[in-house]
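Comment thread on ticket #2218

A.B. wrote:
> Attaching the input chain for the structure job we discussed in standup.
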Amino acid sequence: MTEIVTESENRALLVGLVTPDNPEGECEASLDELERLADTAEISPLARLCQTRAAPDPATYVGKGKLEEAKAIIEANEINTIIFDGELSPAQIKNIGDFLDGPEVIDRTMLILEIFEKHAHTSEGKLQVEIAQLRYTLPRLVGKGKAMSRLGGGGGGASGARRGAGETKLEIERRNVKARIAALEGEIKQLGAARAQTRSRREKANIPGIAIAGYTNSGKSTLLNHLTDAGILAEDKLFATLDPTTRRLRLPNGSEVLLTDTVGLIRKLPHHLVQAFASTLDEIRYADIILLVSDISDPEHQSQLEVAKALMAEMGAAEKPVITVHNKTDRIEIPEKEPGGVYISALTGEGIDGLLAEIQKTLEELRKPVVFVFPAGGGEGYISHLYKNAAVSKVEYGEDQVTVWASADERTRNMYKKYIAR
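C.D. wrote:
> Ran it. Output below, let me know if you need it in another format.
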């Protein structure tokens, strides 16, 4: 991918559409978010345009009149990048570029992919980003030009390939990109298997898993740092953290949980990224509890929560117990707190005790009454484990067996399934 020029040189016009599915308020909120994405990518958003249409123009996304307006703004402000708040087709990229004759044409997906590439630090994160880039680029190879150069993806070109009988250069390039995607997916599958083994070991240790999920830049990493001294990067930028980090947390009652920070969610999250980051996002799907973090100081926090919930449902986590965590209370006066949530500042520590109490309460609610019958002489280790990970109400020692009445979560019940009294 080509290097971004300095902020003073990289000046952008943002363009959005108001449609029946995307009313004016949604369009403006999405453009606000696009502006923050541009800032994160070190692009200065100088102006924005919105057009009301029944649907995007199949040739140029917006109408010719709006493109004329865009051209005038671009020339008057020496703008060299135009960013569309949607996903452009290859034909649209080419037609818009031909009409404007100068500025680079990119869309929301390309911008997000560029940010992901910059913020991916682990080998798995880099592989996931490259897969997403190549999947996005593949159907657009016919329109590859200045805009596509931003999404090189590495290894997908036709350089050095031998041309088969009747194959065009474009066909070779497509074949090579598909081969590269398959190779990368193989590597991701191996890493996913290793992650599954790690998850299996955690389950055998019977430590509950809690995923910290939510909108990008809601303070998830800051919360993990505050609770566990994880020491991970926490910046006031979108998608500052891509790679999941897991740390142990001891609750006030002495029990332990595993906290995992996850990649941030956002409106119009490109499906290429959801697919590529599937193994990472599995941390949300396999968690016992989800801490859904929102930035209470953001005017759009309620709609951001709804977006995050919808995306989590797509991941298969709709039925998981969720604790809504309204973060960044240090930034705003809250006249009236909404019921059903915890209010905290991960930066100052305000409300953290209440959050820990809510985690303990939710874990207790996951427990159900159960009676275990262990063989005499061999059950002491089991009983000790139950005292640590369940609520033991009674233990009765018999000649041949030990009977334990307890309240235990699903993981503990499954762990000692063969000892449950029938």
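A.B. wrote:
> Thanks. Noting for the ticket: Confidence is low (pLDDT under 50) at residues 1-8, 154-161.
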